[in-house]
Design goal:
By secondary structure, the protein is mainly alpha-helical. The chain has one domain (19-109). The chain has 6 helices and 2 strands. It has helices at 8-24, 54-57, 68-75, 79-90, 92-103, 110-126, and strands spanning 43-47, 63-67. Strands 1-2 form a two-stranded antiparallel ribbon. Helix 1 (8-24) runs parallel beside helix 6 (110-126) and helix 4 (79-90) crosses helix 5 (92-103). The radius of gyration is 16 Å and the shape is globular. It starts with 7 loop residues before the first helix and ends with a helix.
Amino acid sequence: MIIKKQSKSRVIKRLDALLSEIVRSRGKCEAEGEVGMKCSHQLQAAHIFSRSHKGTRWDLRNGLCLCAGHHLFWAHKEPYEFAKFCLKRLGAATMDDLQIKARQITKLSVHDMLNLEDELKRIKKGV
């Protein structure tokens, strides 16, 4: 059997897609009722800490299932209000842990990412 070398960018795309599927499988906007905004039907995976932080990019605690309205017109436009919501929802300990992970320089090899992909696939099967 020939094992094909995995391109890092392809593995990243697969990891992003897996995380998005798992988060959206929660089935409803987790910010429903916040800021008096009516939820739209389109669910999206939103990150609390930016995807640019590799330490938290694929951490499920860093992902929220939000409708497009709450994601684009609340979380991105009102970051302070969104941060208060996240703190209330996740608690200080989890938010502190995510912030520490987000601020660390994280370099993942393709092998590390493939292991993470296997872990997310196992989680997806259990969802």
